[in-house]
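Changelog note: in this version the structure field was regenerated for every chain. One regenerated record is shown below for reference.
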Amino acid sequence: MYIHKKGHPVIKWFLLAIIGINLILYLIPAKAIYSITIGVLSLGVLFLVVRFFRVPQRQSITDETLILSPADGRVVAIEETTEDEYFKDKMLQISIFMSIWNVHVNWNPVSGTVEHYQYHPGKYLIAKHPKSSLLNERASVAIRHANGHALMVRQIAGAVARRIITNPAPGQQVQQGNQLGIIKFGSRVDVFLPLDVQLKVNLKDQVKGSVSVLASWR
């Protein structure tokens, strides 16, 4: 495991802030219990921030017939919907909610060519809100597989998440299981698939990015 490079500045500023707060408490008269409590809470916050940016070393599945999960988390929605941004057609949407305990790195679910990328500024509704996919800050990446089919991964910020990082650009070739990006303090990822895929997950399933299988091409 290592810490994502996008987390280094955030961790640095949190660490400096924690040192500053505890130094002030040390220099001014205060009850020991307050200083100890603030010190313990500060370390707890720093621990959580470091956890947010961890990147686990895991053995990704590589199988061109499969569509892998792009994120760690719990499946909170499986439904037919109309994708209006790029495909403008009915598709199968699978939504994965990432809690504060999940890894917040995202992975490419398939290999292929990036056909579309679009970043949208927006609100910061709770990620479980049904409208968060359309109203929140988000970034969408459409990937065309060698078999001619395409899918879209949409990274969605939530009430805490405030910054989405997406690596691939239009025209770029991506490899299944490689990093797609990261949502700082993470929240939700929606995957839009053709309706004729063979579904491999159920509602409320826990999935692991680049390892769990969401569906397979028919």
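Spot check on this record: The longest helix spans residues 32-52. Residues 66-216 form a domain with the Glucose Permease (Domain IIA) fold (CATH 2.70.70.10).
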